[in-house]
Amino acid sequence: MTLLDTLFPSLSLVPVVVIDHADDAVPLAEALLEGGITSIEITLRTEAGLRAIEQVAKHVPNIIIGSGTITTPAQMDAAANAGARFHVSPGVTEKLAAHAATKGYAWLPGVANASNIMTAMEHGATRMKLFPASLSGGVPMLKQFASVFPQLRFCPTGGIDEKNMHEYAALPTVFAIGGSWITPKEVLAAKDWKQVSAISQRSMKALTALA
Ligand code: 3PG
């Protein structure tokens, strides 16, 4: 059992958040929880990202906080120190994979082809993020991977929304679905937390209908 197995024991939704104001992180995480979502990936694409992770880790202990868009070992360490319990990268590199393994971090490497997958496997990864999911091959690609790598589990991200999430959720090798549709830019800008809860609730309903 790996740390990621423990964090995601059943089919989950992972909102991918690009945050401009760290102070929005706590109400946002609370709104997700209110809508039934139990994890959040805050990306380090903005300056506020790290502080947002820190705020959520400190004030919203019931949500599983993760860091996203991790491209260097230093970012992974900083996110872990801020309280992130898992880390997500858009791709896989030898350096990141070795670092995550040495530190014992729960890390989801991004993969888009069989070679990426094999690199991640060489460092012990069994759960990975398919990115960008729709552009790299989507559902048919995951079906193909399931026959070649039946032991692996994937979190497809990129190009997924309320309309097509069910296609991914129906695959037995999918353990989570990630995306920004739950926390749209304009909804965050308006601080419309009710809307975040509503989208979360609709998406979770669609997910559990399939489970
Ligand atoms: C990611 O970081 O995983 C993607 O940017 C999320 O993709 P989406 O915006 O298409 O959901």
Structure classification:
alpha/beta
Strand order across the largest sheet: 5-4-3-2-1-9
Distance, first to last CA: 22 Å
Percentage of helical residues?
40-55%
Q: Output the number of helix runs.
A: 11
Number of strands: 9
* Beta-strand content bin: 15-25%
Cα gyration radius (Å): 16 Å
Give the overall shape: globular
Mean pLDDT across every amino acid position: 96
Order of helices and strands: HEHEHEHEHEEHEHHEHEHH
Largest sheet: 6 strands, parallel
* Distinct ligand kinds: 3-phosphoglyceric acid
Regions with little confidence, pLDDT below 50 for 5+ residues = none
Strand and helix map with partners:
Elements: H1 3-7, E1 12-17, H2 25-34, E2 39-43, H3 49-59, E3 64-68, H4 73-82, E4 86-88, H5 94-103, E5 107-108, E6 110-111, H6 114-122, E7 127-130, H7 133-136, H8 138-148, E8 153-156, H9 165-169, E9 176-179, H10 185-189, H11 193-210
Parallel strand pairs: 1-2, 1-9, 2-3, 3-4, 4-5, 6-7, 7-8
Helix pairs in contact: 2-11, 3-4
The structure holds 3-phosphoglyceric acid (3PG).
Q: What would you say this structure looks like, in words?
A:
It is a single chain. The protein is an alpha/beta fold and about 210 residues long. It contains eleven helices and nine strands. The strands form two sheets. The protein has a six-stranded parallel β-sheet with strand order 5-4-3-2-1-9. Strands 6-7-8 form a three-stranded parallel β-sheet. Helix 5 links the parallel strand 4 and strand 5. Helix 2 runs parallel beside helix 11 and helix 3 packs parallel to helix 4. The model has no long low-confidence stretch (mean pLDDT about 95). Bound molecules: 3-phosphoglyceric acid.
